[in-house]
Amino acid sequence: MLFWYKFFTYLFYPLSHVYLFLRKIKKKEHFLRYKEKLSQINVPRNEGFLLWFHVASVGEAMSILPLIENFEEEKNINRILITTITLSSAEVLQKKFAQNKKVVHQFLPLDIPKFTNKFLNHWSPNLSIFIDSEIWPNLIFDIKKRNIPLLLINARITKKTFLRWKFVRNFATKIFEKFDSCLVSNNETEKYLQILGAKNIKNYGNIKFAKTKFNSENKLDPVFLEKIKSRKVWCAASTHPTEEIFCAKIHMELKKTYNNILTIIIPRHIHRIELIVKELSKLNLKTALYTNFKEMSDNADILLINTYGKALKFYEISKCVFLGKSTVKSLIEDSGQNPIEPARYGCKIFHGPNVSNFKEIYEFLGSLGVANKISSFPELSQSLVEELKNEKKNNEEIIKKIENYGQSTLNNVLKEIKTYINN
Q1: What is the CATH number of the domain that holds 279?
Q2: Angle at 233 (CA atoms; ends 227, 237), nearest 5 degrees
Q3: Does residue 394 sit in helix, strand or coil?
Q4: pTM across the whole model
């Protein structure tokens, strides 16, 4: 299988430039920086110890911020490289670290030997850390050929992913045994990695429970807060197709009780914004975009968040949050969005029946009374009517438990990583 994987990636090499160019035209790649995926690098490495983190998308990028904040202060680390794949994650990280000379963001090159070799020749990392389920075979084998320590942090393998790996088990074992250490995020992943031949597996819990240091970026614009100060607010986050309409109908039901209700919807993919606006207009709802909030009317029904990296701001002002990707039947095998962030902000979380990707986290939060499964439209609307009678959050004790758990996980992960830095 390894032979055939390498063979087909070599075959793809002549097409790679065209492939990325077409994606650029479709606005799926950065207009200028897409060439980084071809290992065309314009940023110097600099001398000294280089720590490299690779994440896929926004959620994983946010999860490593507590780690980055700690390693920024380490004097024996001269450079922190963060690679991602998606446009949204790049946008979030660029904003976060634009003024930080120690941290640099790059797009990960395509998993083609010519590109992975060129990438590693340039950056020559002293320690490589992959997050979640980011597995790129050619890159992993090239890293280990150079004797670079390689860690898998916050590893997460769902049953669906495990069955795929199990189908090519020998190939999977050759990949996972290359990791010097695997820190898993849940018990299910620990079991699957053992079967797939990973070594040095440790279960410290999910790093996404760790809290980033407070900064003003998590505060909403005072002008916006003044504009909505008399409104009752609830939030629907990480919504997928059909869920925006579901939440809009919930809004219409809530309006029968609370005439001043404002529903905030944060779609998982903002390229769908125009389509969502059209769908909502059919329900005769007044919809505003967050980027134009100064023009938002006082009686707007729906506020659509059309920029990435803003969810935390709205969790802070919302007592109740509905998390998407949990009611869409077509996504049942790949369902659920991470509920940790709204939980850390003391929100009451509602979700549909399908949360396969984060089953253990939802069970943990459910045991604390934070997460609530809803099975129908009336169930959610009735629950929200009841919860919004008093918008004050009363979850200080639960928030403290979550913070303590997150800090313990963070401390253990930091300790593990530092053993490879200080060697």
Answers
A1: 3.40.50.2000
A2: 115
A3: coil
A4: 0.83
